[in-house]
Amino acid sequence: MSELLAWRHPRPEGAAGRCIGAGTALPVHWRRAKRLARRIQRRAQRERLPHVAACSPLRRCADVGRWLRRWGWQVHLDAGLMELDFGAWDGRHWEQIDKAAIDAWVADFAGYAPGGGESLAALLGRVQGWTPPPACRIVIGHGGWMLAWRWLHQRGQVLPTAAEWPRPPAYGACWSPRP
Q: In 13-150, which ranges are E strands?
């Protein structure tokens, strides 16, 4: 997985101020999806990468994958690339989530399952166990998945605290495992 280029999906509509995870299907404006697909295609051509991509099935990623597929790419939708599942928190505005629950998450950042969803330790395990399809060098995913992927490459099995966890990449950003 160290040879992968991971791209974060474009900015979705209606995400501002909300807890957005695996359970929230937000649209991406078609122009932003197409623009990111073009950037991915240009990079793949420049670096002579196979036109094979793995993509989260959530709409904000899959919309980019649909453009690539139209242009002849093999696109594999893969649930292993989905964002963290925030359970009952998913889609809610952050100020609507009980402060005591957020404090409990911060106190046990890796082990706590926000909203009864998925813990960060579970996400790290999912990312560590993920295998790209043959010839795949491009991933279209989410900020949380990308942070977990980079964390594993930089820190290995050490579980993070809330203070150590980095900020997510910008929408449309491309990351390799190393900063």
A: 52-55, 74-77, 138-141
